Each structure stands twice: as C-alpha cells, then as structure tokens.
Amino acid sequence: MSPASHGVTRLLTCAGLTAALLLPAAVPAVAAPVRGVPAAEGEKGQELPAMPTALDPEADETACTPASRAKAEKQDWSRQRLDLDRLHRQSDGAGVTVALIDTGVASGAAGLDGRVSAKGAAGDDCVGHGTFLAGLIAGTGGENPRLAGVAPGAKILALRGTDTRGRAGAGLVVDAVREATAAGADVIAVAVALPHRDGALTRAVASARRAGAVVVAAATPDPPRGGTGETPSRTYWPAGEPGVLSVADMLPGGARPDDAPRTGGVDLVAPGAEVVSGGPRGDGQYLGNGAAVAAAYAAGAVAVVRAAHPEEAPDAVTRRLTATAYPAGIPQLDPYAAVTTVLGDPARSVGAERAVRPVTVRDTTAADRATGRATLFVLLGAATVLAVLWAGFAVSRARARGWRPAGAGGTDQE
Questions:
Q1: How far apart are CA 283 and CA 110, in angstroms?
Q2: Domain coordinates of the chain in residue numbers?
Q3: Three-class SS of residue 382?
Q4: Peptide linkage before 242 cis (omega within 30 of 0)
Q5: Cβ neighbour number for residue 207 with a 10 Å cutoff
Q6: Could you say which protein family the record assigns here (predicted)?
Q7: Are strands 275-278 and 285-288 parallel, antiparallel or unpaired?
Q8: Tens of pLDDT along 124-180?
Q9: Which of 161, 167, 262 is nearest to 215 (CA)?
Q10: What would the CATH number be for the domain defined by 41-222+233-362?
C-alpha cells in the first residue's frame, strides 16, 4: 500500500469511528420529551392506597372505602406539571362554584374547609371518588399546601351521578345537571362517562350551557375490570355533546395509558395517572387514575379562568383553555397559560390554531415522532459511514495489488 493510500484509509477510519460515537449520542437530545417531568410518585417509592371509582357490585354488604393511614411525602408530578404553585399567585378560583357530578363529596373532608354544599344524599360519599376529585378541583391540601387543588378558593356543589356503590346512571346524571343549572353553578364537572347518548341528557346539557355554565366531562370511563384486549373506539356521553369540554387522561410523558378506552374528539388531556388527593374519611391520601381525574383538573382550570376573567362568556372560556393548551401531539392542559395569556398574542397564535381543533386521541406524542426521525437519521448516517469505509478499504486493497484506474500511469501493450 502506498503512503498516500495508507493515509486516506487512516483518515476515513477515524472519521467513521467519530461519526459512530457522535450520532447515537444525538438521539436522547432529539427524542427527549419537550417538557420533562418527574415520574409518577408511585414509581418513586411513595406508597398510597388506590382510590376506587366504584365498589364491588357483587358484595352482599356495602363496605365503604376505608380511611387512608398513609400520607404523601412530597408534591406529585401532576401538580408540578400544571405549575400550580405559580398559578395560585395569579388566581385561586375565589367566587366560583363548581358542581361536581360523581359519587358525592363528604362535606367535612380534610382540605375542603366547609366549602362543600350537597344536594340530597350527595353529602355522603361511601366510595370516596367524588371527594378525591373535589380535592383536585378545590382542595387546600390540608396540612400539606403543596397538595392543593387547581382552584383552592372555589366552592364545590356536590351532586350524585351514581348510586351509593358508584354505578352511573343516565337518569341520575340528568337530574344532577338540572340541579347544577338551577343552582347557578359556574362550572359543571361530570366525572362519569355513559356509553349511550340520552335525549334528556342532551337537553339538560344544552340548557346548562344557555344558563352560562361551562360543562366539563370525562372523555371515557375507567377500563372495565378484568377486561382483555382492546375495545373499539367509541364516543361517550355527555363528553360527546356539542360545547362540552371533553378531557382525557395522560401519563407523565403525554401519552394515554395503554389500557385506556379509545375515543375521538377529545379537546384536552390532563394528568390522570398516580395523582394524589384526599378522601372522605381521615386526613391520609390516595392515588387516583383515569379520565375523571383529568376532568377534575380541567374543571379546576375553568374555575381559575372564570375568576380571573369574569367578563368572558362560557364559550370564550372554553376557547381560552384550548387555545393556550400546550401544543403537543395531544393538546395538554396548561392552566397558568390559560389565566395569564392575552389571546391574540402572536407568540401563542400557532399553538392556538392547532389547539382549537378537536383531536383524536393517539398513543403517541410529538416526542415519539421525534424519536422515530432521530432513529432514521442515525441508521442512514451509519449506513453512509459504512459505505465510505468499505469503498476506501476496497480501493486501498486493489491498489496494493497493482490495480490502476483506466488511463492512469501508462498504457497497456498492444
């Protein structure tokens, strides 16, 4: 091999090794989530009992969810993600009433400070799920202010959309929406999701919106117990009604849980995995999951927006929430931006155009797509480097054996 050929080979080899080391290192930087958040507290060793959405329907006797003896040691990821500490310096929802339609709310629950009124039996929450959600909407956090809800200054009107064991019924939800409308609630949060549309519910929701309420609803129910396989995508109600803010749950990375029921037309996603809140008995905490949890966070966001912008009509409040949502693959609730953003600001206009259109929930996020592009880039780069190395190696070996390109360095004898 000539000295020149040897030098070329060494140069190509060094370049190839450098590229092989640098290209893979670029993948984490490109594929990292846009907004990094801690993992759910349950993954960090903070063990809390799970808050059920319903009690065992086959049990002979109704045993209410027992008081939790465990207390959260730190603020969970969901509150950090929603930037609640900074939000509360702008608005806490004071003067706003949120009607919560679920399993009821215990009026004496820790952290709700006597701000709960209840219709009928809704002041008795055997399941505990409604009280858990009320803490996310308007709780003060009790002994731990960092576990406060989105609107700790708001009031809660508790209404039943289920029986005592947590089984939802269309008639119960219809009556609850009508009662919330008659009471003049500013926000109506429906935590249950019905599989079939009901004409009376359609009329009740339309009447509530005409009366000036913003209606927020869970986009899906919880996954069925013991379910196997993926269920077909479908619309749930009242989330599917016109003008209702439909909210689904998301994991810390922004995607929906693998076992979440599929649906379309979702307006927002909000934290709905390993979220911490209190219950109807005792001063301990639980972990909750699901679209109802996400809807509670969105209802609290509506409350702080209505308190900060009382001049805005209900439809304008809804548009504000969707227009200021974090513009990921699935628009993500951002209550601080909803309260503080001046709509029409050019800096937010692109995100607003993307967020105002309802989207179909997917299992991927913008970060997932970035990961695919980065992986493709690395593979193509690696293939190019290997091709250059092989060509250099082949040329140098051929020259070492006496090969010369046609017309170079002499002629053949005839």
A1: 6
A2: 3-33+368-400, 41-222+233-362
A3: helix
A4: no
A5: 14
A6: Belongs to the peptidase S8 family.
A7: antiparallel
A8: 999 999 999 999 999 999 889 999 999 999 999 999 999 999 999 999 999 999 999
A9: 161
A10: 3.40.50.200
